[in-house]
């Protein structure tokens, strides 16, 4: 159709030939300025009309592009296509290239396009206006917060270059240079209702035309004036918890408003009125709906808060204090002014507990509390200081007590040595004395020496009980017999003091699991006290019966009753306390105050109990209850025979440490034996020498250091050593002797006053063959020495007979002595063919001195080093002579003999036949 309305050519989708449209539903038409082609968007793709050929051709690249709504061209000739859902597409005709989403994201529905130089403006349904810089490849969004709507329908530029746009809410303008945005609606004379997509035009005379549901809007941009008059603001209503507050309305005598809200200058709220709303209005009768509001709460907000068209503001949970609420309104064209600002003071009253009066009370109370706390702290500090002083005093007392106990314990250990020198000779003189009067004197001396020994042992037991070092040794015993044996030992004393003493068991026999030592010590202590405080003519009785515990376990009840002085009632609660001595007893025989404390400790160790009943001047009864079932004790408390479990040599002794019948006096091979006695006490050395000197050669050393040097220089068959010595104690001496290959074979007896089980275990652990406590029985020591020497002789014979070349190929022994022998045999076998190999070379290979090697081999086999080497050579020769094809001369040289005649002589001495006869006999036997 031309300008006169004449139809020049008609194109449809139903035509023939190539000049047909993809579809008759035309969506957009655009004529490019560079190639003067007409681009036509249909619902079935895009076609291009060429004016030169007057033909329409479908563009295959856009075959599936059915939603193109607008087409625009940029300065480079690229076409920009706005789609209905696929955003914008850039088409470069020169290279027939399609760029999808050049913005980097899909803006959805594009309703209109506007291109100005390097800037593409997109009107969208979801993102408002998008300004895209094609050169920098960045974009800027103008959404609802800026232009009032995210839905933009049309775009146009006026003659000044300002951008105008149409939305469902009206018309707006955008100055891209300054960023100024203006919006117009029906209150400004714009039609009501929405505008159509792309229904906008810029007329040649500068007028702009926008078409919509309500008609057409034609205006000139220069004729649009600016309304910048800011209206005044007044407060119109106050609501608390959504209830309207009226002037002079009171709640519990409190008035929030004293005049109408529109003229009020202050609002006074109570602390519990935590939510309230203020309504306000800007006085503008022309465009009231276009007014924007903002508020500032001084004392709370740092800056103005925009409310948009909202003409109310609500507050919640304001803290007590004074605030000033300011509200301002913009002009219809959103011009703000600092004039016409409405303000009102809001005062939130604090609760009573936050008022000045309350804080004054708080200060008073705090002062009272601080003063009370100071007084309390002072009292507590004084109490703590008193407790600390008392604790320090008790610690000092306990430290002094421990020092005293340690002192007496050390003294007690030292007492054992002179007691040994007293009891052992007295026993010997008592047994050998035939004259009755002298024998009686010896008996009295022996009795008091043993009593002193008992006191020493009691003090040592007390020390062990204090440290918790006492252990139970539970075994099954016949209790009637055990208690009777103890009571029998007091019968002589009862006759001397004319006291009626009796043992009255309730049963004839009673088997039970008990600690013999506990029963003995506790009963002896109780009986000793009874005899001490019972006058002549009085009576003492011991009762025994079996009872049952509440759980049904068997128990033994022991009662010691006497008719002595008794115990005062004020003394009874403390009678078992450590070092406690009753008032009544001080006038008579004063004790140490540890006997009953030790008794209670032993009874409690035995899982039993003890209590006392007494009537002063009438009687006293101690009652002791002990469990006797095996199940009442832990497994580790059951007794293991220490002697039999420790060393095998103890089987030669009886249970009391004395020699068994038939063993007394036997000291085999003792005439030439050398024994080293290591003891710092000269009297003990003299005493031991008097016991052993008749049958052994005795040498002495004052301490372990001297003994160690002597043991490495001389040969000893046995060493007897004390434990506590200066320079080097017995434990360390034993450890070093057993750790040296030259002295590890020497038997060692530790002779000491330390009788604790831990000390015995430690002594055996460092290698001692025996551990004897002081005082000891002379025959006990004699038999122990004899048996150890005899055992060493047995081992020596075993080594000399056992030496076999096959010993070194089996499993290595863990015994240092056997390892030494295996190493020596191995070296001799390696040097077998060397006829010059002798004892000096063997000592060098073994890493010991020549004399040390000689003493070791002599002690182990009874042979000299040369004899030992020769016997190994001969044993090897005997093995070689059994090999078929070997002759005597070859064997002689192979085993290191340089003379066949000497070899024959030595072989005959050992095997009682010549090498030739040995070979012949072996062949005949096999």
Describe this structure as you would to a colleague:
There is one protein chain. Helices cover 33% and strands 25% of the residues. With 926 residues, the chain is an alpha+beta fold. Residues 584-588, 641-671 and 807-811 have low confidence and may be disordered. The strands form 11 sheets. A 5-stranded mixed sheet has the order 24-30-29-26-27, with no helix packed on it. It has a 5-stranded mixed sheet with strand order 32-34-35-37-36. Helix 3 (436-467) packs across helix 7 (595-605). It has 5 domains: 67-223, Methylamine Dehydrogenase, Chain H, CATH 2.130.10; 233-354, Immunoglobulin-like; 470-637, Heat Shock Protein 90 (2-Layer Sandwich); 642-796, Response regulator (Rossmann fold, 3-Layer(aba) Sandwich); 803-925, Orthogonal Bundle (Arc Repressor Mutant, subunit A).
List keywords for this structure.
926 residues, alpha+beta, 5 domains, five-stranded mixed beta sheet
Outline:
The chain is an alpha+beta fold and 926 residues long.
Q: In terms of topology, how is this protein built?
A:
Layout: E1 26-31, E2 37-42, E3 45-50, E4 55-58, E5 68-73, E6 79-83, E7 88-92, E8 97-100, E9 110-116, E10 119-124, E11 129-133, E12 138-142, H1 144-147, E13 154-157, E14 163-167, E15 170-174, E16 181-184, E17 195-202, E18 208-212, E19 215-219, E20 233-240, E21 243-244, E22 250-251, E23 254-255, E24 266-269, E25 275-282, E26 293-298, E27 305-308, E28 312-316, E29 321-329, E30 342-348, H2 356-432, H3 436-467, E31 474-478, H4 479-488, H5 491-496, E32 500-505, E33 511-515, H6 516-533, E34 539-548, E35 554-562, H7 595-605, E36 609-615, E37 619-627, H8 642-646, E38 674-678, H9 682-692, E39 697-701, H10 704-713, E40 718-721, H11 730-739, E41 748-752, H12 757-765, E42 770-773, H13 778-802, H14 816-830, H15 839-846, H16 850-861, H17 865-881, H18 888-894, H19 900-911, H20 915-925
Parallel strand pairs: 24-30, 32-34, 38-39, 38-40, 40-41, 41-42
Antiparallel strand pairs: 1-2, 2-3, 3-4, 5-6, 6-7, 7-8, 9-10, 10-11, 11-12, 13-14, 14-15, 15-16, 17-18, 18-19, 20-21, 20-25, 22-23, 25-28, 26-27, 26-29, 29-30, 31-33, 34-35, 35-37, 36-37
Helix pairs in contact: 2-3, 3-7, 4-6, 6-7, 10-11, 15-16
